[in-house]
Amino acid sequence: MKPIEAENEEDREHLALLELPLGQPGSGMTRYGAAMYFFQRGKISADRLEAYRICCNLDSEDPDLVAHSRRNPDR
Known about the structure:
- The chain is built from four helices and no strands.
- Helices cover 56% and strands 0% of the residues.
- The protein is mainly alpha-helical.
- Helix 1 (9-18) runs antiparallel to helix 2 (27-40) and helix 3 crosses helix 4 (63-70).
């Protein structure tokens, strides 16, 4: 996965939200909200957003690992 490049202050703020520590109460939903921001800006794929959605109620789950586990090996 290509890293997200911040173009402005709002991007930097949302990147910080994507990087909240796993396990922090409410962090899954916060990361999902930040992921939706980047999806709307065309900076992450629908598959990547889906990984954040799956983890939104699971604060300890790593969206990167979920995205990797859902990857189609034929792609």
